[in-house]
Amino acid sequence: xxxxxDDSRARVDRDAVWDFLSTQAYWGRWRxxxxxxxxxxxxxxxxxxxxxxxxxxxxxxxxxxxxVANAYLADVFVIPQARGHGVGKALVRGMIEDGPGRNFRxxxxxxxxxxxxxxYGFAEPDRTFLERPSRHS
Length: 137
Description:
With about 140 residues, this protein is α+β, with helices and mostly antiparallel strands. The protein has a 5-stranded mixed beta sheet, sandwiched between helices. The mean pLDDT is about 95. The chain has 4 helices and 5 strands, in the order E-H-H-E-E-E-H-E-H.
């Protein structure tokens, strides 16, 4: 599969992002469309992966950050038809390694794809990390 990674916010197909997050993402179905729109608008950085044949968005991630030392990776997805072709690896590498936050402390929550994230240095938190869980279901 021939694809391109791009961090242009203007290029993001918001309808495709909304469609995936509202129907397939276990982590974000509680959100409304305006929530997703606002999260994209206010993100520190967004990265999309686009199939070259038709410029279709096949992967997406966003991050929020203080812009200096810490960043949180969120809403990472690859559409089912594009999985198994290196899209997820390119997406995470594009966000974590190839962008302005390559030296940041990155955080995320996930219930799957641990192997993908471990390849980019993610690990279980140490004893210094505390969290207040979300009240959204």
